[in-house]
Amino acid sequence: MTGLHQDTSITRRRALAVTGGTVAAGGLAAAGYQAAFADTGTTTATTTGTTLGTTAGASASASAGSTAGACMTLMTSVTEGPYHLDGALVRKDITEGKSGVPLTLRLTVVDATDGCTPVAGAAVEIWHCDAWGYYSGYTTANPGGSAPAESEDGSTANDGTYLRGYQIANANGVVKFETIFPGWYTPRTCHIHLKVHTGGQKEDGTYEGGKVNHTGQLFFPDEVAEEIFALEPYAKHTGSYTVLADDMVYDGGGASSGLLTLKSVHKADPSKGYKASLTLGVDPDAENTGAGGGGGGGTPPGGAPTGAPPSGAPTASASS
Known about the structure:
- This protein is mostly beta strands.
- The chain has helices spanning 31-38, 62-65, 222-229; strands at 16-17, 102-111, 117-118, 123-127, 164-168, 174-180, 191-203, 206-219, 261-264, 274-282.
């Protein structure tokens, strides 16, 4: 579960500069779940982000952070991982009734080759697992450890579309998603996948055409993940959780490697949720779909299906 995987075919580096608040780390982790972290060592994650060219006390505004100071460099993309599906829906709320700790994700897309000017009209696509480690389209894949079957969550979510979606960037390059804090599966740490698309357009409820400029992953500080996974419904998934230092994709670079800065909605009650913000520095002329070969992304857990997604999963091409 160790080792770093990067796509060496990309010659320019992309950086993800975090903007946003600070994490309110709590001590609410239940004793039963702490065992999942006990033998993995202690990891200290930097959870206050600073946009390059600014000081640590600078404004955390995503719109201001994307244009002030020196522009970030480019970070190498990673592969999309085993659970991408074409044809995700354009929508702000991707939960479909899936239960979990609320997460508001604000992302700002800027052109790192042109002074960090906003990339208006960019389509940001995200997808991640539910509280027990299951992805839509692959709900029979065993997430590792011990977890109830995905069908036992009691939601009415569509098994082919939940926790997947696009948003189109506004004039400031900003998109916002309403989702839940992701769970985990063996052997990966908690993460969110993303792609940045340009040149296409919204059609039939999804995003068609254009090209993928960046394929990446977003990560969460260990202490926040431990706190969240002690809560319901996450606590029903037990086992050995992979911390950031042992993840096969996260390379320890903090914000430049996709580590999100979080701000708690209610400092004393993590169940109320978090807000996360990140600035994505991309090259609109580059192309990296993240599909196939190098760059990490994580192997599927045991039992992952090898056939087509179930009927009802989106099939329209989301990029070309």
